[in-house]
Amino acid sequence: MSRITRTSALGIVLCLVGVAHAQTTARNPQRPTTKVEEGRAHKTVMRDAAKIDALLARGLQRNRREAQPFVDDATFVRRTYLSVVGRIPTLKETERFLADQGPDKRTDLCDLLLNSAGHTSHFSNYWFDLLRVKTRQRQLSGEPFAHFIRQSVLDDLPYDEFVRQLMVAEGPAHATDNGATGHLMRDNGMPHDSMANTVRLFLGTRLECAQCHNHPFDNWTQKQFFEMAAFFGNMRYRDMRAVGNYRELRKELATEDQRTRQRVLQLVRRLTQGIQGNGSGVEKLPKDYQYDDARPLSAIKANTIFGSNVKLKYPKGASRSMSKRAKRQARSRRDMVPGINSRDALANWMTDKKNPQFAKVIANRMWARTFGRGLVEPRGDWKKNTAAVHPELLTELKKLMVRLEFDLRQFERVLLHTKLFQRQCDPVDPNPGQAPLFVGPVLHRMSSQQVWDSLLTLVFDDIDDRLRAPNYNATPVYAAFEQIKDADKAKLLAIVKGGNRGMMQKMQQERRNDVRMQKARDEKLRKRARPLMRALEMARRDGDLPRVNQIAKQLEQMGVKLGQRAAKGSERDLLRASDLEQPARLGHLLREFGQSDRETIDASSEVATVPQVLSLMNGFLEKEVLKLNGQSALRRDLQFATDGARRIRVAFLSTLNREPTPQELKDWRRQVAVDGARALNDLVWVLCNTNEFRFIR
What we know:
Elements: H1 36-39, H2 42-62, H3 73-84, H4 91-99, H5 105-114, H6 117-130, E1 136-137, E2 140-141, H7 143-154, H8 159-168, E3 171-172, H9 182-185, H10 191-203, H11 222-229, E4 236-238, H12 246-252, H13 258-271, E5 273-276, E6 282-284, E7 299-301, H14 324-332, H15 342-351, H16 358-371, H17 391-403, H18 408-416, E8 444-445, H19 448-457, H20 475-484, H21 489-497, H22 503-542, H23 545-558, H24 589-592, H25 610-625, H26 633-639, H27 644-655, H28 662-675, H29 677-688, H30 691-694, E9 695-696
Antiparallel strand pairs: 1-2, 3-5, 4-5, 6-7, 8-9
């Protein structure tokens, strides 16, 4: 008997053969609230896609290039799953698609995945990277911000409204459903950086080099930088309104010991994290300002860098510098200058359909997300003379974005239904920072999140079913805030001195208790299932598949979850990347494969390194996927394959999502016949370390 069949019954209690639900049909709280088919008719989508293909064909003809041929079904199904839901398809999903003979199966698959929970997870990852979401940021938790992003994706919040909420958000950062403050809080204490990053993200314009002097490589002046910064004037990164009289509180604490005072003030600092001040429309030039168009330290009014002017209603004297006495009085009122809602005015100007950059920039980003590069590169650094590789196409994409009222999922749907999405990748790599002609999509490596989630697909039958509610990690943060907001000295002291762990810690402990109880229930279930498991093992060894399926159904009726490696909630860190800490800890496979540290915009990396290979060779694959007597979905499928040829096909279809070539099948059948399980482990390891696995073809 080969080593592959020597698996004890107890080792496969939770990885039985059976028909598992497809990931895309899982019922979970991250499934989009509406289906894309309900928003727009298929015929309309195909018409928009055809127009894009026609404009692209015209551009290729001008450049005397021919489009690439269409890909086969195996390449298409893998590309689509990676592009839309951020992971490779499972064995069942791959075989189902390859066996489907329907004429519309490709467009049907795109719509199916756009309606899935996996799309929410994958698109959330995109925004986490771009908006630099961090779970921990000193006294600030990033979980409310992550919750806002997930919920916005889930609800198809129009992009213009999404951006607007990020720009005008105000109030406590930890208050329930106020996570939109996370964008401005990301540059805590640095309003000039908040402005520069906002303009770069949403208008594709880099102003940061003009903060200290006129831009050396563009047309922006230092004065223009401060005119834009004026829209963020009077914005503060603390909202003191939840604390009451802070000065009186400090006086009352004077009689307490130093440690108690520090712990109470730490609670207060956490409580007051937030945004206050809706924008004064006034900013002061630096003292070393050296140009002739204004004097150093003079106050200037807000003004936009291009497009239509924004009209603001200023109080009298707002454009003059404040006296020292006026500043002291303003500080005592916690408001340097009166607010005139200039942030709101800037948001309206920025997200307006007539803004020359807003719709173009996001259309170009969505194009790059789908096809590997933008029509304009770099995506976040448009200059006055920037031109798209296909100008007419970019103009049409901008119009389409506006027609769709900034519905990004519907926009993505159109791109997925183009002929370009079905073409083979361009065989020539474009130069770094350069837009290609798009004879086909650009061959590029998976993102770190796609690598991680794809590897999890080899462990679990249904990783999307394990996605948590969008507010799962933020709920303890909200609860802790509610517990201490409006607290007086007595309540704060009770929390600190009375041994009260705080609501957040309590809820975390309750979750750990729930996991322990679930494990105990699973253990009882295993004991009850042992007789059937022994019978299942015997049936499997005898090759009696009807008997195997019969016993599997009995076990399902008992409540044994087929193909589940671990009970939901007890996966340790085996969660989809979007549900993990943001970013992952140093040394995690996500970080090894280039996940952004979230300190700067677009900081992720797709460069191959030696530690990546070592992580797969000695880490994840060995411990979670290939472990003998393990419970991974791939291990189970290999164990229950009827013969050596099927095992090799399972390995290829599960990892590369294609059938092995005749030569590959012949070579590996010989190896498996000699070395059994070790050869299969070698096969899976080799396949997962190939460029074919790591790249999106």
